[in-house]
Each structure stands twice: as structure tokens, then as C-alpha cells.
Amino acid sequence: MQNIQICFNFILCFSVLLSILYTQEKSFRVFPMGSLDLLHPTPDCLDFTIGLGGRVNISLKEPTSSEMQKIAQPLASGGEFFPLHCQKPHHVAIIVPFRNRDEQLPVFLANIHPFLIQQKIHYKMYIVNQADSNEFNRAMLMNIGFKEALKDSNWTCFVFHDVDHIPEDERNLYSC
Q1: 153 within 8 A of 138, measured Cβ to Cβ
Q2: CA dihedral defined by 17, 22, 23, 26, rounded to 10 degrees?
Q3: CB 119 within 8 A of CB 174
Q4: pLDDT in tens, 116-169
Q5: Staple 17 to which of 33, 35, 69, 140, CB 3.0 to 4.6 Å?
């Protein structure tokens, strides 16, 4: 049996006071304290393609600790993001099989989080690490990530992603 570790938080995330509201879709919505404005309802996130500009600037250099902290600010613990300025977003689990790519992971995370946040989707990143010395089993890691993601939420979409692939165009939509 292979030794598998589920790793949910590879970047520095800071604790933020959170309030949780139960929405009509029977899913939890997370807001930083004081960000909810009941007098001005938020628009739907469903038309998230508005404002997507095409090609993005990607950086292949390893981000510094302060750059990673800045990227992590809008994220909840475990690499999860919920858009605050719209409602009814797509719910997407991003599953990344991983092993021995320690140099590529920070570069991937530094590029993928801003990319996904721009798309106004609710997502959580699942980095599934194979910790043994057996042959890399990508399919098994994807299955494990899928099962673990289902334990967290009733995701409506799953994206299986490689750590060495970085999206280069905002019109590459991460939704179903």
C-alpha cells in the first residue's frame, strides 16, 4: 500500500475573523467580518466572463515569502476562496497530484490563485502528495483528491490539474 498524504495548505495563510452565513443553496458562504452589506445585494457570479481580458502575465520565478503572504490574503484556511462581491458562484474543487516538485509548487500557487480569483468562483485547492518511493501513481492521487474533496463540500465541478501547467489565458474557464 502506498503512503499518501493529503496536503491542503502549502502557502502561508493568515487567520481572519470569519462569519459564516447559510445561503439558500444550503451551502456555507464565508465572509470577512464587516464585509456584508444587506442594503445593496451582490450581483450573481454566474456571468464571470465579464472583465476577463485574455492573456495573463505569468511569472516562472519562485515567489518570495512576502509575495506568498500577499497572494494568501484573500484565501481561507486550506487554500479556499469564496468571492465576496457576487453570489451564486460556481463551486470548483481543484485537485493537483503532487510528488517531488518542490520548486514548481510555489510558482504554480503564485500564478493559479490570482487566476482563479479573477474568475469569481468558489474554489478550494487540494494538493495530494504521494510520500512514498514507489512509482508515481497520478490516477490514484486524483481519485484520493476527489474523495477527500467530497468530504469537504458538495462541489459541482472538479478540475484535475498538474503542478507544472500554468494557465496563460483568463478565458480558460475553470467551471462546469
Answers
A1: no
A2: 130
A3: yes
A4: 988 888 999 999 999 999 999 999 999 999 999 999 999 999 999 999 999 998
A5: 33
Indicate the length of the chain as a whole number: 176
| 97, 141 Cβ separation under 8 angstroms | yes
Angle at 30 between CA 44 and CA 12, to 5 degrees: 120
The three three-digit cell numbers of residue 96, written as one number: 493537483
Residue 6: alpha-carbon gap to chain centroid:
15
CA distances in angstroms from 118 to 50, 69, 131, listed in the order given: 10, 18, 32
Query: Residue 123 corresponds to which amino acid?
Result: Y
Give me the half-sphere count of Cα atoms (radius 13 Å) on the Cβ side of residue 175. 20
Q: Which secondary-structure segment (H or E) carries 154? A: none
Torsion of CA 32, 34, 39, 42, to 10 degrees: -20
Cell (9 digits) for 37:
452589506
Cell numbers of 55, please? 492573456
Q: Determine the Cα–Cα distance for residues 25 and 88; give it in Å rounded to an integer.
A: 8
